[in-house]
């Protein structure tokens, strides 16, 4: 618990009380429930809280791998209380709240090898309407920064925690830049002309491979993770004096998207039998997606192709073909991907078709989720590289 400097009445602390957590979801659901009712939204957040990634720090595997520091992996909830509010009930005193999803990542410092790091992702930053504009959210994030710095810099903190990086996805533009965060805009590509892309770009022949369900493709995720480590080394060679980090590829992360997806599908009566979440070609190249029912789009979460394969253009074409098929099959209206996931300038055929088919506002479109990171100790914002900053690590 921290009493904020310059205030006798504001207290920042973590909460593990399920009733308090539920209350914060009832509050912030007003902003994020989308097509769900408030009750359904609160239920969904409870499902995600109990999901594999939400509880990852408590898994035997994580505890074994990180006997110290595992408790920072998974979801944590924080509140800012105003003690001036004359009430016995904690929930009456809450003025702002937020969450952190702690995920495993990898990083490299100048001159050292790849090391594990905790990527603490801030989400759910919320102040109730009557309390807005009084500096509460800013003070809460500043207190959270101090709290995380304290944990990171404690004398006995394990390497996982010493290497902590903090990231977030802002829905309120540059709001966080005054709190030490550096924004990084990753543009989107939005394919709305599904019939056209099928005709002009997609693969016309049979595509051999297998559909990906809710889980059961751990070996493919392991390939992603190896490629991430190789890429960190590669980026380091080009940037020997920078701190470079990535969120690790993790099946539990993809399950988190699938949980959201299935929950909203059921609650909004968009039932599909045996929903699929991706496709793998026979050479293990694969694509993972999530159905954004509220936005009527299929979002590509990850594309994996072994580096240096001579037929990368064709492989991508096949993977996108499967995503277009899924978009149409599930009645969604567009296919969306982040440019860091598929850098279209590296795929001239795709780029050409997109530029010809789509309205200019759909290619390199503004991403309403603005990613931002807080540089680790000893590094300025210009000396940090966030590798693989794409939808898969969004929270
Ligand atoms: C964003 C939010 C958390 C700010 O809470 P707060 O306690 O009022 O924040 P502060 O008092 O520290 O700062 C207020 C400033 O936030 C900024 N801000 C608020 N909403 C904003 C938006 N949609 N876009 C850009 N800036 C915004 C403004 O600069 C505002 O300044 P103003 O009061 O002069 O207009 C609050 O408006 C909220 O809960 N919004 C709905 C949920 C949300 O969007 N959360 C952010 C998710 S990343």
From TrEMBL:
Coiled coil residues, start to end: none
InterPro entries on file: Acyl_CoA_acyltransferase, GNAT_LYC1-like, LAT
Occurrences of domain LYC1 C-terminal (ranges): 218-395
PANTHER family on file: LYSINE ACETYLTRANSFERASE, N-ACETYLTRANSFERASE DOMAIN-CONTAINING PROTEIN
Protein's UniProt name: LYC1 C-terminal domain-containing protein
Native organism: Zygotorulaspora mrakii
């Amino acid at each position: 618990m921290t009493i904020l400097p310059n205030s006798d009445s504001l207290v920042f602390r973590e909460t593990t009380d399920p009733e308090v957590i539920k209350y914060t979801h009832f509050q912030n659901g007003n902003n994020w429930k989308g097509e769900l009712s408030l009750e359904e939204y609160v239920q969904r957040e409870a499902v995600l809280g109990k999901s594999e990634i939400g509880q990852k720090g408590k898994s035997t595997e994580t505890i074994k791998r990180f006997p110290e520091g595992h408790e920072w992996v998974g979801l944590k909830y924080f509140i800012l209380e105003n003690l001036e509010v004359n009430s016995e009930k904690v929930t009456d005193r809450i003025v702002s709240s937020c969450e952190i999803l702690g995920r495993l990542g990898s990083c490299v410092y100048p001159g050292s090898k790849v090391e594990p790091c905790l990527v603490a992702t801030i989400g759910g930053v919320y102040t109730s309407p009557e309390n807005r504009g009084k500096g509460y959210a800013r003070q809460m994030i500043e207190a959270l920064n101090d709290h995380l710095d304290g944990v990171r810099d404690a004398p006995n903190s394990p390497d996982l925690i010493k290497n902590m990086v903090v990231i977030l996805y802002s829905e309120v533009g540059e709001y966080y830049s005054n709190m030490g965060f550096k924004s990084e805009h990753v543009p989107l590509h939005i394919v709305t002309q599904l019939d056209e892309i099928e005709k002009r770009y997609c693969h016309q022949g049979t595509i051999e491979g297998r559909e990906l369900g809710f889980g059961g493709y751990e070996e493919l995720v392991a390939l992603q993770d190896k490629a991430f480590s190789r890429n960190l080394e590669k980026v380091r060679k080009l940037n020997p004096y920078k701190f470079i980090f990535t969120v690790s590829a993790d099946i539990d992360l993809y399950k988190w998207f699938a949980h959201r997806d299935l929950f909203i599908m059921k609650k909004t009566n968009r039932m599909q039998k045996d929903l699929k979440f991706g496709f793998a070609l026979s050479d293990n190249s694969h694509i993972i997606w999530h159905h954004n029912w509220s936005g009527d789009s299929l979002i590509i979460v990850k594309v994996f192709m072994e580096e240096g394969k001579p037929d990368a253009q064709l492989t991508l074409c096949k993977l996108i073909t499967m995503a277009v098929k899924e978009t149409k099959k599930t009645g969604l209206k567009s296919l969306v991907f982040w440019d860091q996931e598929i850098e279209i300038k590296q795929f001239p055929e795709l780029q050409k078709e997109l530029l010809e088919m789509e309205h200019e506002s759909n290619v390199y479109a503004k991403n309403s989720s603005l990613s931002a990171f807080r540089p680790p100790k000893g590094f300025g914002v210009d000396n940090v590289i966030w590798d693989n900053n794409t939808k898969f690590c969004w929270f």
